[in-house]
Design goal:
Elements lengths: L11 E6 H9 L3 E4 L9 H12 L7 E5 L8 E2 L14 E5 L1 H12 L4 E6 L4 E2 L4 E2 L7 H4 E5 L15 E3 L6 H13 L8 H16 L1 H4 L1 E7 L5 H11 L8 H9 L6 H11 L1 H5 L4 H13 L4 H7 L2 H25 L14 H12 L3 H21 L6 H18 L6 H5 L4 H6 L5 H13 L13 H6 L1 E4 L3 H7 L11 E4 L1 H7 L4 H12 L1 H10 L15 H20 L10
Parallel strand pairs: 2-5, 3-11
Antiparallel strand pairs: 1-11, 2-4, 3-5, 6-9, 6-10, 7-8, 12-13
């Protein structure tokens, strides 16, 4: 009986020799998926990689994906490798492009640089020994020159001791000539025969790995699903370029005449908001999948979307994202991406955006108000904290009908709004959705700049920072049991005002602000930030708990107005 430990893994792990991989790249048996970025390593990083291989040090694992019949992914050759081939590659490189391109170009003499080894740096001629790895100065031992460099240029001149790395397979022929040069040099204490013996030992220690070094390779079988490929790649490559569904589908749809990369570049050029709000192009694919398949799950995006779906919905979906962002900026106080409660929340809203465009003017304004209500309800119920893909599918199925007529069943957050006063009272700034939602709600309700008294614009919102109303240092001195990081203790405050606040008690800095800004303007500004500024209130009496309770009640009223729901008030402390 075969145990679980003896059963075949989902992928194979085998070392492949450098020369084997270079040969297969040359024949285009191994290639790159078209979504991979361009080769970006400079000559220094390539030289460091060569040095590590010559030292037999680990250089990281490669990730390959076998290609079977019927897998029509767009592919391209490595930089410097032949492009023509009568058949598609049998293997695509998912992780390792930079390393393999560097090795290929260095070992074949292609690309913009030519790499050389100063062989004398690896030996100690007086003692007739090969140096150990720690004794070799690899920064001097390996160097490069631009491929177009000609003799007499400002770069160092090549000598007989400089071995081109692309000629390492002809090392013995090269050594015959170099050994004669050494034997004929009366200043060197070596005969040609002794030189050959010494440099052959150097060859076995340092040159041979450039051909025989075994690069560890994880090979995914052709049967591996695209969903699994994404997950495996994300696990192995936390710090490099991500391989997501958008990149995989870019390669998959390319043969169908759909170039997702070009489509996205065009969309960003046409809709500046996409770049300003850092929209992920994958979210556009999710919006399309919601429209045509009713799902935003990654497996459905990968398996069920077709090239025709992209052609039919791409333009309107990207315009939908831009439209939703424009509405949130104008009507919901989301002036910048920084304060967007959930990026994922834009996807179902963008997917239904076209629905309201088909309505008459009055009906359209009502539909937009419902869409805004959905935004606020989803923000304050924190529905997108977990299971966002499933939540998008559930919301879309109701939202598409509800915003049109207002009579169909509303999305879950709109119907239930499961939030209470205690949650709002105790939420810290770590609750990003609630915190960002509060800031946006205040901006929507014309929160004013403390310094100018003017309503927050996108520019002013960027210039102002979220600062403590009761200073953190002040509360620490009071030994207050309640956290200074509660979201109710934050407001958008300009730099000059924050310098006035410093670590002072509110009653102290409020007097300074009255002098600087005027009592009436200050009262208006405080009210615009949902801060109670009456003489008997918590702010002016340095009572933190009273201040929090007072502000909580004002914030609850604002949330109720935005969502159309009544929030349960409970004992707060």
């Amino acid at each position: 009986m075969t145990s679980a430990y003896e059963s075949d893994p989902i992928f194979q792990t085998n070392p492949l020799q450098v020369l084997n991989i270079v040969t297969r790249i040359q024949s285009r048996e191994i290639a790159l998926p078209d979504f991979q970025r361009d080769f970006v390593w400079d000559s220094t990083r390539t030289a460091e990689l060569l040095g590590s291989i010559m030292s037999r040090y680990p250089v990281g694992t490669l990730l390959f994906w076998e290609q079977g019949e019927g897998q029509a992914f767009a592919s391209r050759s490595f930089d410097g490798a032949p492009t023509a081939s009568s058949s598609p590659p049998s293997t695509l490189v998912l992780d390792g492009q930079q390393r393999l391109t560097s090795l290929y170009q260095a070992l074949t003499g292609s690309g913009d640089e030519r790499y050389f080894i100063k062989v004398d740096e690896f030996v100690d001629i007086p003692s007739r020994t090969v140096r150990e790895v720690p004794d070799v100065d690899f920064e001097k031992a390996i160097f490069s020159m631009p491929a177009a460099t000609k003799s007499g240029s400002k770069f160092q001149k090549l000598t007989s001791s400089h071995l081109p790395i692309c000629d390492v397979h002809q090392f013995d022929d090269w050594l015959d000539d170099y050994a004669e040069t050494i034997g004929n040099d009366s200043k060197l204490p070596l005969t040609a025969k002794e030189a050959k013996s010494l440099y052959r030992e150097m060859r076995d220690k340092y040159i041979s790995p450039l051909k025989t070094y075994g690069l560890p390779v994880l090979t995914l079988p052709s049967s591996t699903s695209m969903d699994a490929v994404c997950t495996i790649f994300e696990t192995l490559n936390r710090t490099g370029k991500p391989l997501g569904p958008f990149e995989l589908l870019t390669a998959r749809f390319f043969p169908q005449g759909v170039n997702l990369r070009d489509l996205w570049d065009e969309a960003e050029a046409n809709h500046k908001a996409l770049k300003e709000f850092r929209i992920d192009p994958y979210n556009v694919l999710q919006a399309i999948c919601l429209r045509v398949r009713g799902s935003a799950q990654r497996s459905d995006v990968l398996k069920k979307l077709s090239g025709d779906d992209i052609k039919s919905h791409w333009e309107s979906a990207t315009a939908g994202f831009a439209g939703v962002i424009g509405m949130l900026q104008a009507d919901c106080g989301v002036t910048t991406q920084k304060w967007l409660p959930y990026g994922m929340l834009l996807t179902p809203m963008a997917a239904v955006w076209d629905k309201q465009k088909e309505l008459k003017p009055l009906e359209r304004s009502q539909a937009l108000r419902r869409l805004q209500r959905f935004f606020w309800a989803s923000t304050f119920t924190t529905n997108y904290d977990q299971g966002a893909n499933s939540q998008m599918g559930a919301d879309y199925s109701r939202l598409a009908k509800w915003i049109v007529n207002g009579e169909s069943e509303a999305p879950e957050a709109v119907n239930e709004l499961p939030i209470n006063a205690t949650t709002l009272r105790t939420a810290t700034v770590r609750r990003k959705a609630l915190y960002s939602g509060l800031i946006c709600l205040l901006i929507k309700n014309r929160a004013a700049d403390f310094h100018t008294g003017q309503s927050m614009t996108a520019t002013r919102a960027l210039e102002a920072e979220s600062h403590h109303i009761f200073p953190k240092a002040y509360l620490a001195k009071q030994s207050n049991s309640e956290s200074s990081e509660l979201m109710l203790n934050r407001a958008l405050i300009d730099g000059e005002t924050n310098r006035i606040i410093a670590s002072h008690a509110p009653s102290t800095y409020m007097e300074k602000m009255k002098t600087a800004y005027g009592e009436h303007r200050l009262a208006d500004v405080l009210a615009s930030h949902a801060i109670a500024g009456q003489p008997a209130g918590g702010l002016l009496n340095d009572d933190y708990s009273m201040f929090l309770d007072e502000r909580l009640e004002i914030v609850i009223q604002l949330i109720e107005e935005a969502t159309g729901k009544v929030i349960q008030r409970e004992a707060t402390h």
